[in-house]
Write a structure and sequence with these properties.
The protein is an all-beta fold. Strands 2, 4, 5, 6, 9, 10 and 11 form a seven-stranded mixed beta sheet that branches. The protein has a four-stranded antiparallel beta sheet with strand order 1-3-8-7, with no helix packed on it.
């Protein structure tokens, strides 16, 4: 079992940037990783995913070109670099880990979840 802890959230103005981190309690080398977000009153949605060695990434349409997911397996950490932030990016952001060989894109694909970090984009 792996425990995940997100950090790096906060309040940022429209057009600003943030980098989220997600640190694991143990090695992540056997896990595909993902980032999801959940806005108030809405369901949790996929944002970005990255495979075991970082060679394959995918993004939701709403963040493509603005967000970048990366991982450092030596540090057991996954990152989400967010740029050109918009008010609609406001949400609690969660990282998740998935066993297996493919990148997951749905909530049910993932086995372990962090507690989330709040990102608020003010206009």
């Amino acid at each position: 079992q792996v425990q995940l802890v997100e950090s790096g959230g906060g309040l940022v103005q429209v057009g600003g940037s943030l980098r989220l981190s997600c640190a694991a309690s143990s090695t992540l080398t056997n896990y595909n990783l993902g980032w999801f977000r959940q806005a108030p009153g809405k369901e949790r949605k996929f944002v970005a995913g990255i495979n075991l060695n970082g060679g394959n990434t995918c993004y939701s349409d709403s963040v493509t070109g603005r967000f970048n997911v990366s991982r450092d397996n030596a540090k057991n950490t996954v990152y989400l670099e967010m740029k050109a932030l918009k008010p609609e990016d406001t949400a609690v952001y969660y990282c998740a880990a998935r066993r297996g060989t493919t990148v997951g894109v749905t909530r049910d694909d993932f086995d372990y979840w962090g507690q989330g970090t709040q990102v608020t984009v003010s206009s």
